[in-house]
Amino acid sequence: MMEEVKESRVVFPGDVVREIKSVKGLTILGPGLKRNESERDTLRVTRAGKLQFKPPNIYWVNHDQKRYIPKRGDLVVGVIVKKSGDSLKVDISSSEQASLSMLAFEGATKKQKPDVQLGDVIYGRLLNAHKEMEPELVCVDSYFKAGKLGPLSNDGFIISTSLSLVERLLDADCPILDALGKVFPYEIAIGMNGRIWINARTSKDILTVIRCFEAAEVHDDQVIVELCKQSK
Fold first, then answer.
1. In contact, 104 and 204? CB cutoff 8 Å
2. What ranges make up the beta strands (E) of 73-212?
3. Would you state the pLDDT for residue 4?
4. What percent of the chain has pLDDT over 90?
5. Span 14-41, pLDDT tens digits
6. CB–CB of 38/51 below 8 Å?
7. Which residues, other chains included, contact 43 with Cβ-Cβ below 8 Å and sequence gap of 6+?
8. Half-sphere exposure for 171 (CA within 13 Å, toward CB)
């Protein structure tokens, strides 16, 4: 089935849609789409959902996916569930646990390793993610610096959300995180695996953030912004 790209149109795997906008011949494809090699200037849908377009040239399929499928480069929030020598096993909400070397932290050596225990929460980047191999995590960037990666404070709280909400919160145009920041200071680590780590000065502030995210699952951005204003 051939259709022009229309925002929020429901599509199914195998559908073919025409590209209608590009910048200097460049079209940016997000999840759920790939180029149709058999026909020029068309896209093929790979998963069911709503076809989305963001000017000037970005397309993706918004899909309420339940199970996280690891992808290389994803930032994820994980929980350490096993220690064995210099290797850790981390639950990242996928079908298989990820491995994390004790040497994959900034400044770690064989003599000086990070103090991490079972149950600790880490923010890591997927170095490798192949369907036939165990996912591999690291807590450093390409310059071997931790940056925002590494162990997260045990004072924080973890919630699980839909993957679609994670994608929405990570959109640069989403006003929810800024609206919360105007009410009270807080820390947050958003994992592409549907887990979000939250920390704030008081338990009440943490619960406010959680309630806003729960509401965001069923309401649009402006409703959540108003809810944040009422929390002042």
1. no
2. 75-84, 87-91, 98-105, 121-128, 136-139, 150-152, 157-160, 186-190, 195-200
3. 46
4. 49
5. 888 876 566 556 777 877 888 877 776 7
6. no
7. 5, 16, 17, 18, 19, 27, 29, 33, 34, 35, 36, 59
8. 17
